[in-house]
Design a protein that fits this description.
37% helix, TIM Barrel, single chain, globular, 12% strand, 8-stranded parallel β-barrel, alpha/beta, 9 helices, disordered C terminus
Length: 312
């Protein structure tokens, strides 16, 4: 086919990498629990993981850092730091929450995570700065322009160099070339579509060394795939891989708050259970695959200031 030579020239041929990358600690995969919408939900995730005897390496949140108070941000940072896990918060202002109707229309829904106008960019960057002040070191981004702005602010020393930029599933690339472009923009990790086949997953991995974020189980709004039994095969094809556990047949939580707290906590606990079952499958089918331990290198673990010693 006419495009084959061009794809090969760009390093996108769909062949498996001869030197498959790993996480900096030598691990093949990490476990992520998404939609952890506040400190109480995060506490439940940590406790459920302890009961199940598993490690959760990262949690992510979808309502936006903007909807958490400074006290809540600091509490999430402290819990994450204590557990040695990454806390990744969605950058708050975005088109789906804005006054415009476009992103809430059937044909405009793909724009829901984007940022509208210069004021939107200003608010979004300040949302990151505010959460950074509370100790958060990882953020979900769903807008190319915002990602470029944040990376530029890092280069200028206006944001810390150790921040993690996690490309949201709302901006998930559908082909390897798009993934490469996100990598060049500064993405640290990137969600890919939850319905990706093993062949397509290998194609993504052949094109880029960026860790991939993949819903092993996804909520209904993202297709409702349930493939925990495939975890070992997914890790072999996509390592380094963040295995995400959403939950099919569960309610939408965004924007979250006290009014849905009970549901958010129950959903999070079940996600941890789903992850534990998937890990049983992985251990049964490919016990040589290695998961990162708490506090592993490369995780955006919150930075919490040490407590001031009391005066004597």
């Amino acid at each position: 086919m006419r495009a084959e030579a061009a794809l090969a020239r760009l390093g996108i041929g769909g062949l498996a990498r001869k030197d498959p990358p790993l996480f900096p600690d030598g691990a093949h995969f990490r476990i992520e629990i998404p939609s952890v919408e506040g400190p109480r939900v995060l506490e439940d995730v940590v406790q459920a993981a302890e009961r199940q005897g598993i490690v959760v390496n990262r949690v992510s949140q979808g309502s936006g850092a903007m909807l958490l108070s400074q006290v809540e941000l600091e509490e999430m940072a402290a819990i994450g730091a204590g557990a040695g896990l990454e806390v990744s918060l969605f950058v708050g202002p975005r088109e789906g929450f804005d006054v415009g109707a476009h992103a809430r229309s059937a044909e405009g829904s793909a724009h829901a995570g984007q940022v509208r106008g210069v004021r939107g960019l200003l608010y979004a960057a300040e949302d990151v700065a505010r959460a950074v002040d509370a100790g958060i070191r990882s953020f979900l981004v769903a807008d190319h322009g915002l990602l470029s702005l944040l990376v530029d602010m890092q280069a200028a020393g206006e944001l810390p160099a150790d921040l993690v930029w996690k490309v949201s599933v709302l901006m998930a690339p559908s082909n390897p070339r798009s993934l490469v472009l996100l990598e060049r923009l500064g993405a640290t990790t990137a969600n890919i579509p939850s319905d990706v086949t093993l062949e397509q997953l290998r194609e993504f991995r052949a094109a880029s060394v960026v860790p991939l974020d993949l819903y092993v189980e996804s909520p209904d709004g993202l297709g409702g795939v349930v493939r925990g039994n495939e975890l070992a095969d997914l890790v072999v094809a996509g390592a380094p891989l963040y295995a995400k556990f959403g939950l099919r047949n569960s309610r939408v939580l965004y924007p979250s708050g006290e009014h849905v707290l009970g549901d958010a906590r129950a959903i999070a606990r079940e996600k941890v259970h789903r992850a534990a079952v998937a890990l049983e499958w992985l251990t049964r089918l490919n016990p040589d695959l290695v998961q990162s331990k708490p506090g592993a290198v490369g995780l955006g673990i919150p930075r919490v200031a040490p407590a001031t010693a009391p005066l004597l």
